């Protein structure tokens, strides 16, 4: 490895001296832990294989289950969750569902057969308020530690870590109302999922509080580009001048539909997405969206799960994390009309 590694490259990436890099690579103890971790991250980022003596020994496996990978927010969760698991000495064992493929139950069965110490569910059946929760009770009865992300369910006695969906919609509505929009459409995912339901309920409250002379404009659809396209037509036909979408992917669909109709974003219609997945700043126009605090959620979820694995005293908690409205180029003041 010494022949391939350029100490200067590692030093620049980690923000330390080449002498410090050398001490870390040689396993010297007189290096602060934060500095050591910075050098190890630099090794990973630059594509170098860690020397055997610097590789962490796994304390066990943790199963990580996400519903899909086509929506870029889920790979983002996988990245941060996996990083935190590795940092805390555990190896992630990853599973994802896909159309006509593995179900959540079959994934859990396969992952459990590998002797995992615990499980993380991201936007799984726990978020579906119509789903049978006995599958989670079985895990509890068998003393399998697990946590859920983005889908608090009062029927499941396990810690949940979620974005504050009500606050997200409040921020989006205040922004659009402040820009003079009075007809604001809302494109949601299926309302049987608790995050979608929470967002929709808060939207209705905001319309009542902020736009008392206006009526709600809502379309329920799938979390897909095609779903966004279909719902864009539905809300625009009802006179919406701005649209809030409950995922960035759906927002891309609404933007495509608007452009296909010969209109412009944001000159004719303002759009707000939800997630702030990685590529959203690079669109043209760049998407205004509500950012999920993915890293904070991931770190808290893994820390709590590891505590449960180690049987440290803890209680079932429902923890919400504050989102951030990121204003970019897809929102603008409402057009003035004769009726304005």
From TrEMBL:
Family matches, as SUPFAM superfamilies: lambda repressor-like DNA-binding domains (SSF47413), Periplasmic binding protein-like I (SSF53822)
Give GO MF terms, alphabetically: DNA-binding transcription factor activity; transcription cis-regulatory region binding
Which controlled-vocabulary keywords does the entry list?
A: DNA-binding, Transcription, Transcription regulation
The protein's superkingdom reads Bacteria
Residues annotated as domain HTH lacI-type: 5-59
Looking at the UniProt entry, the stretches that span the membrane are none
Task: State the name under which the record lists this protein.
Answer: HTH lacI-type domain-containing protein
């Amino acid at each position: 490895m010494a022949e391939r590694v350029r100490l200067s490259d590692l030093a620049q990436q980690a923000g330390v001296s080449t002498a410090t890099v050398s001490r870390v690579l040689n396993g010297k103890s007189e290096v602060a832990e934060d500095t050591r971790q910075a050098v190890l991250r630099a090794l990973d980022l630059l594509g170098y294989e860690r020397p055997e003596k610097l590789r962490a020994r796994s304390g066990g496996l943790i199963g990580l289950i996400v519903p899909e990978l086509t929506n870029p927010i889920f790979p983002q969760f996988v990245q941060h969750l996996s990083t935190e698991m590795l940092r805390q000495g555990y190896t992630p064992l990853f599973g994802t569902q896909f159309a006509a493929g593995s179900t959540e139950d079959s994934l859990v069965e396969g992952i459990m057969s590998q002797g995992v110490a615990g499980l993380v569910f991201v936007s799984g059946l726990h978020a579906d308020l119509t789903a049978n929760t006995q599958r989670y009770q079985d895990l509890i009865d068998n003393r399998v530690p697990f946590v859920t992300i983005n889908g608090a369910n009062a029927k499941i006695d396990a810690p949940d870590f979620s974005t504050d969906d009500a606050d997200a919609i409040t921020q989006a509505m205040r922004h659009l109302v402040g820009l003079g929009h009075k007809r604001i459409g809302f494109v949601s995912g299926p309302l049987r999922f608790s995050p979608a339901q929470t967002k929709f309920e808060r939207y209705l409250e905001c319309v009542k509080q902020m736009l008392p002379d206006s009526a709600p404009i809502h379309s329920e659809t799938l979390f897909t580009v095609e779903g966004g396209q279909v719902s864009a037509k539905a809300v625009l036909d009802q006179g919406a001048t701005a649209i809030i979408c409950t995922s960035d992917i759906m927002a891309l669909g609404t933007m495509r539909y608007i452009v296909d109709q010969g209109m412009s974003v944001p000159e004719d219609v303002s759009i707000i997405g939800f997630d702030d997945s990685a590529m959203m700043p690079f669109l043209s126009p760049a998407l205004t969206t509500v950012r999920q605090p993915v890293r904070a959620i991931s770190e808290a979820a893994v820390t709590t799960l590891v505590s449960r694995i180690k049987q440290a005293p803890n209680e079932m908690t429902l923890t919400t994390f504050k989102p951030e409205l990121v204003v970019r180029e897809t929102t603008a003041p409402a057009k003035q009309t004769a009726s304005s």
